[in-house]
Amino acid sequence: NLKDSKMHTPNQRTHLAKEIEKIAKDIIIIKVAACKIDTYRKEGVNMNKLEAMKFADILNYLNPTMSYIDCPDTVPKRLEDYLKKMVDNGTSFCVEHKADENYPIVSAASIIAKVTRDEEVEKLKKEHKLSTFGDIGSGYPSDPLTVQWMKSWIEKNKEFPDCVRKSWITTELMVAEKEQSKLSTWFGKLRK
Question: What does each of the 192 residues of the chain score in pLDDT, given as a tens digit?
């Protein structure tokens, strides 16, 4: 009963992940910290390229004969061409946008990735005492709970913790707004 990981509840995903782990030959998870993603972004590496780089790392390590890949790009040929250059072990590729809808093996990988991400968010909440500033939500910048949490955090702190991507436009706008507010306050004091 595998399908897109977003179609399952968190409990269903956790249960499915345990079942997948029982039967999978290999599971490799590469975690990239927010601060590392920010560094890549400063170097001009977008998320699609970063994901492609990590796909290549895994494929070179595992050396499979066939690889099914859910392409984050709407033009799968770009990713396939990149992987053909970076993966040097004769692997054949099936690269599709939304491949998790067509291939159970891709759905399984998506479920493992989502469960791992959810676990990491929970760890970060505890390590950084993030819930002190309200419900962090899913940790995605499109989540209203996450955005509200970010606003609460930045109102009371000079900067975001390392676990928040500084390269998100949401983060950049909030930091700029805080700086603008400081300037307005400073100029207001000068006028008095």
Answer: 676 677 788 899 999 999 999 999 999 999 999 999 999 999 999 999 999 999 999 999 999 999 999 998 889 999 999 999 999 889 999 999 999 999 999 999 999 999 999 999 988 888 877 777 778 888 888 899 999 999 988 888 888 888 899 999 989 998 888 777 655 555 555 656
**Cα 163 from Cα 172, distance rounded (Å):** 15
132-191: CATH topology is Arc Repressor Mutant, subunit A (1.10.10)
> What are the extents of the domains in the chain?
5-123, 132-191
Task: Please state, in angstroms and rounded to a whole number, the distance separating the CA atoms of residues 155 and 178.
Answer: 8
| The domain made up of 5-123 is a member of CATH 3.30.420.10 | yes
Q: What is the pTM of this model?
A: 0.83
Residue 130 gets which letter from DSSP? G
